[in-house]
Write a structure and sequence with these properties.
By secondary structure, the protein is an alpha+beta fold. It is built from 21 helices and 17 strands.
Length: 541
């Protein structure tokens, strides 16, 4: 078997809080699989002639965490997909999350693989190593559904293709970008009403509201235990969310609002003004004093104690906390707010997915696929209208019905005697998570926009200015190596200093020294690499 060069694993570079960009590198020799010619070689051109179902192995992107089913093979949508495509799918699950890397090292690959978004080097690496097939010609000849999407949506095609025009993946696609507006600022409207205050729209108004929450006994227990701004302790940081008011993202790369060039948030002078404000809020007790050590579970415990007045998180929190709290607090209400306007002058979104119809992950066809044509026809069905409909809604008459031309989930889903709606629906479909399909906003909204205030939050977050946000970029092997060596230190250092500046353990006056250290760590070189990759992305056609 021909030996291939395997790249050394390097640290993945974060483009944003919720979207990871893989990186790749040159390195030691390792085993690989013998690949047919890329695109549509002789083996790829021949559809199997057997009469029975075509068997295809499929490494999935996630384990099933549901009480109603044990795995993808039990979901009715995937049973029906197999019937309609005359395919038998042998599902392989990722185990503890390291299984994909182990599989890559083994040199033995399934027919189809859903590549994790944080795999070092990403899908581009797999193509360059000959592990994943280029699919351009196969799509042209055997994937009419996918081809139609790409032809009708050149912006989506631009995100899916690599810098050289190669298309190698079938991803989750959001044609309606409203579904992606699922995180942002959230505040207790009942507390605002109690103080006769309007929802804050600027950074100064936020300060006034948080101060009022702090100085008044909002939960009525006679104890000064209110936490005006809570912190979830995960990537959706409430404190980081205020950085956009200053025209930056707190801990990652973004577009400079004046120059249109790539920059790194903590390296911008505005970062000093931002952490100065956050430190002032912290010193006045407006930010949870334990923010640096909290996790999601601890945050939820504090919220359940009726102490938190605002935070930043995903939209499901509006629904979940209302279900939790309205029994004990009849007028309890959380609402979503647009990103506050500050010195930068605009309501900038910091939700990095909001410029991406397509995430970084996706399904590829491996070079060891026994029948690439059968594989691509399966994927094309999945991403087409029928396959997407099955994966989003399930089976008509069982999991959904059509009323007045609109689909609606049945009582089998929303009033199941044994399972919650989110569990019950997984027996039939996956409306709130993606794989290879076009996501349905309506199916997703049936679960995520349960209450009117959640729908209003979704609308406000969608309308925020997205011009700070970078698209998902790809890097060459050399670029990835360089970024890995630079950013592994920079990101750790920036995060540590961010916490110290906010808590006051590092004087704000030392910001210039902090910035000088970033320079020594070669942050300008990393910025230049991002700028080059961004220009390549813009030039994709």
């Amino acid at each position: 078997m021909k030996r291939r060069k395997l790249w050394t694993l390097v640290s993945c570079i974060s483009i944003a809080a919720t979207a990871l960009v893989g990186c790749s590198a040159g390195g030691s020799e390792g085993g690989g699989a013998a690949a047919p010619s890329q695109d549509s070689g002789a083996g790829a051109e021949k559809q199997t002639e057997q009469q029975g179902p075509v068997e295809l192995s499929f490494f999935m992107n996630t384990n099933m965490e549901a009480k109603a089913v044990k795995g993808f093979e039990e979901i009715e949508a995937y049973k029906e997909i197999q019937k309609r495509t005359n395919t038998k799918i042998n599902f392989q699950l990722p185990g503890d999350g390291t299984q994909f890397n182990i599989m890559m090292a083994s040199g033995t690959y399934p027919d189809i693989m859903f590549v994790p978004r944080n795999y070092p080097g990403g899908i581009e690496r797999l193509v360059q190593e000959g592990i994943a097939l280029k699919l351009n010609d196969l799509i042209e000849e055997h994937a009419p559904n996918y081809k139609k999407i790409l032809d009708e949506h050149p912006d989506i095609k631009k995100q899916i293709m690599m810098d050289d025009g190669t298309i190698a993946k079938f991803p989750q696609i959001d044609i309606d970008m409203h579904r992606i507006a699922y995180s942002g600022h959230i505040i207790r409207e009942d507390w605002l009403n109690k103080l006769n205050l309007q929802a804050p729209t600027t950074i100064d108004e936020w300060y006034a509201v948080l101060k009022a929450f702090k100085e008044n006994d909002m939960n009525g227990n006679g104890v000064a235990d209110e936490i005006p701004l809570g912190e979830r302790g995960d990537s959706l940081s409430s404190i980081s969310a205020f950085a956009t008011s200053y025209g930056i993202l707190a801990n990652t790369f973004h577009i400079h609002p004046q120059t249109g060039k790539v920059t790194y948030g903590p390296y911008e002078p505005a970062f000093k003004d931002y952490v100065t404000t956050m430190n002032a809020w912290y010193e006045e007790g407006l930010i949870d004093s334990e923010f640096a050590a909290l996790d999601k579970k601890a945050f939820e415990a504090k919220f359940a104690n009726n102490t938190i007045g605002s935070y930043a998180a995903v939209i499901s929190g509006i629904n979940n906390f209302k279900n939790l709290m309205q029994g004990q607090i009849p007028d309890f209400k959380l609402i979503g707010l647009s990103p506050p306007i500050g010195p930068a002058g605009k309501s900038y979104s910091g939700h990095t997915q909001m410029v991406q119809n397509v995430p970084l992950d996706g399904a590829v066809i491996s070079s060891q696929a026994k029948d690439p044509v059968a594989a691509i026809k399966l994927l094309d069905f999945m991403i087409g209208p029928e396959g997407s409909d099955l994966q989003n809604w399930g089976i008509e008459g069982k999991s959904y019905v059509v009323e007045n031309g609109k689909k609606k989930f049945t009582d089998e889903v929303f009033n199941h005697p044994d399972f919650s709606p989110s569990d019950a629906v997984k027996k039939y479909a996956l409306p709130t998570s993606g794989m290879v399909k076009v996501m349905s906003f309506d199916a997703w909204a049936s679960f995520e926009l349960k209450y009117p205030e959640a729908a209003e939050a979704n609308k406000k977050w969608f309308e925020a200015d997205r011009s700070l946000l970078l698209p998902a970029l790809t890097f060459t092997g050399e670029e990835s190596q360089t970024l890995g060596s630079i950013m592994s230190e920079v990101e750790t250092y920036s995060r540590e200093m961010w916490v110290k500046f906010v808590m006051g353990n590092e004087p704000i006056e030392n910001y210039d020294q902090f910035r000088g250290t970033l320079t020594k760590m070669r942050i300008e070189e990393a910025i230049a690499i991002y700028q080059t990759a961004y220009e390549r992305f813009q030039n994709r056609k």
